[in-house]
Write a structure and sequence with these properties.
alpha/beta; homodimer; seven-stranded mixed β-sheet; 2 domains; Aspartate Aminotransferase, domain 1; Aspartate Aminotransferase, domain 2; four-stranded antiparallel β-sheet
């Protein structure tokens, strides 16, 4: 008789965004006339830019001709894309990363979820609190987090590093060093960012303690301030302790196109075993590459035209972010983020819980956001709004919230 | 100090196709003039058909317009595709499968590798021998197979079900029932297929013993004989015990496009926990959908034009298969498969090992095939040739082999 993976049963309720979707759909059922504005899930709304569309059409045409048709992609991804990444994302920033350390994937979510497979189940993980739920959930599924306490909203074996207004959203070093440290920078959902010195501090801490940092830089293209690193490899020693996960979803609007990559430097090794080789083995065994046409689209992001066009799209979202942030501040809200990330992180008024404020906003303003507590216990009394809507929708939402 | 997943270290050497690639590239280095014909890896060579190309271009254009742009896909995949699958792959064959039991993915390899996550590490798996290496390797990575014995080529905790000329390539029921049974039908690499009665026998066996069948039907569109099931759900009771994995790679030439799906019926449950819900949770947590444009391409496979065109492509490969099989038989080889699958499975002459025959064919005929022993110990003294080359290449390879 087969036995299921009982770790799945430990996961409480559904995934955050599924719960929101259910609540919204129930509201729509009873209020079919409601004109909802969704600033909840971090999904882009701008169409793909012309340079990417051209690259997609061109690659589709190649697939129509037997002389240019492409079957299985190379395990790590096409060299044209890996080289463009190395050149633009790393060399230009002074980071020493080579193409055989770059692994193309179908997105940062898959990589964030799968990377934990390289580690034994006896590792202790640490996460910022609040944070993107996939880090913990994927570890729970593998049996790594102990048990969930409904009262505290915490897993018994996870090290939580609160990021709140009290500490300026800068996580503190745990007294006992965890084995694996997840850092999302700029952070989702708080929209705040650690500067280069602070990230260097984490690299130093990891090297001193033999920890691995899993650095999620999905939002790096939204950084507007100097002094915030775009890659952890801008820090000295990061090649020995840090894996970096990157996405095309937010910078190039690829949420429905699916493309990301992970960098695993060859310098990370335990007992002579290189994590880079383990990840290569995983790619070769349980994955078969991102589509050729999508990899060509990714290459176009780095072309002169493509880079200019995607920067303009990022600019559109950041204009929303600034307007939302300023408007909410004017309306008396306590607001964070929105400067180096497309997320506005507000403290709920009147001591409302995050879900109370979610319901309040849904019912009174017909605006959908994301409850901060869905990202971790320290997210309670916070609320996330994204800047990924259109400018019009963002401003309409703002007006409605101001009137509450 | 972090600890790696030591199960990875148990895996012997590299993945089969990586080893072949290295050998071929070494040969080319010393013989730059050699005109190699590759009938090794199961990769398609025909371009995408016009109906699929049109669908891709159309979907790319939608992504260029903000009114038709698509961001994140629904967790299970778009309904238009899941409905087309249910209608064409299941209802038309009398199988009772609903759209919310179909999970769209980036390919059968990912699903084959990931599906084991739903089960505890104490399950015993059974595989046909020889078989697609991903089934075992993905279980080894999770710590499920015990230890590898270099002498026998077997894992201590895996139940091997030999499929050889002696038993007509029909696996026998293990005396002690395994928990999870992988069946690939038609089978890769042998190219042989179980008929409906034989598959029904496995369904009955699984139900009686509380086992789960993971049924890989990646090659179902190559079936030419009546009496061979295209889906395990043609068998009575399969909804209670069988998960089916399907691919667009081989029927529609999607090896570089990436699309597949897995069916997990709601009737499979252990202690009230439905595997379907667990798989939905995995999809929601560690995956973010196949690209919209690729899902539209998948839909086109089921259109009237698309279905006709992909059937013609399958016909091209099967013409190769028949010609290769007949030609090799004429030349005195002992040949199997090639009737319901695009694989020719030959017994090596002169008691050569599989790898000896690989080297012999590479050096003397400049033809690249796949050593049978790479698919399991019972594959020793066998060799796989694929029908995925062009007709010209297949015939040139045949002529060279005949002259040996």
């Amino acid at each position: 008789m087969y036995k299921i993976n009982t770790n799945y049963q430990k996961l409480p309720g559904s995934y955050l965004f599924s719960t929101i979707a259910k609540k919204v759909s129930a509201y729509k059922e009873t209020n079919p006339e409601a004109d909802l504005i969704k600033l909840g899930i971090g999904d882009v709304t701008q169409p793909l830019v012309p340079a990417i569309i051209d690259a997609l059409h061109g690659a589709v045409d190649e697939m129509a001709d037997k002389d240019t048709f492409r079957g299985y992609a190379p395990d790590l991804g096409y060299e044209f894309l890996r080289n463009a990444i190395v050149e633009n994302d790393y060399k230009k920033r002074g980071c020493d990363i080579s193409a055989d350390e770059v692994f193309i994937s179908d997105g940062a979510k898959s990589d964030s979820g799968n990377i934990q497979e390289l580690f034994g189940t006896d590792n202790i993980i640490a996460v910022c609190d609040p944070v993107y739920p996939v880090y913990i959930d994927s570890n729970v599924m593998a049996g790594r987090c102990g048990n969930y306490d409904e009262k505290t909203g915490k897993w018994s074996d996870v090290v939580y590093m609160p990021c709140t207004r009290e500490n300026g959203f800068v996580p503190e070093y745990p007294a006992k060093a965890p084995d694996i440290i997840y850092l999302c920078n700029p952070n989702n959902p708080t929209g705040t960012a650690l500067n280069l010195d602070e990230v260097q501090g984490w690299v130093d801490y990891a090297r001193k303690n033999g920890s691995i940092i899993i650095y999620d830089a999905a939002y790096e293209s939204y950084i507007t301030e100097p002094g915030i690193p775009h890659s952890i490899y801008q820090c000295e020693g990061a090649r020995e302790c840090a894996i970096e996960i990157r996405s095309f979803s937010k910078n190039a609007g690829f949420t429905g196109v699916r493309l990301g990559f992970t960098v695993v430097p060859k310098d990370i090794a335990a007992g002579g075993v290189r994590l880079r080789d383990m990840w290569a083995r995983r790619h070769g065994t349980k994955f078969n590459g991102a589509p050729y046409i999508v990899q060509r689209a990714g290459e176009a992001v780095y072309s002169a035209e493509g880079a200019k066009q995607v920067a303009e799209e990022v600019g559109i979202y950041m204009k929303n972010a600034h307007a939302l942030k300023d408007g909410l501040k004017d309306a008396g809200y306590e607001v964070y983020g929105g400067v180096n990330a497309p997320y506005i992180w507000l403290h709920t008024p009147d001591d409302m819980t995050s879900w109370e404020f979610f319901d309040f906003l849904l019912e009174k303003a017909n605006v959908v956001g994301t409850p901060g507590s869905g990202f971790g216990p320290s997210g309670e009394h916070y609320f996330r709004l994204t800047a990924f809507g259109t400018y019009e929708d963002s401003m309409r939402a703002l007006e409605r919230i101001k009137k509450l």
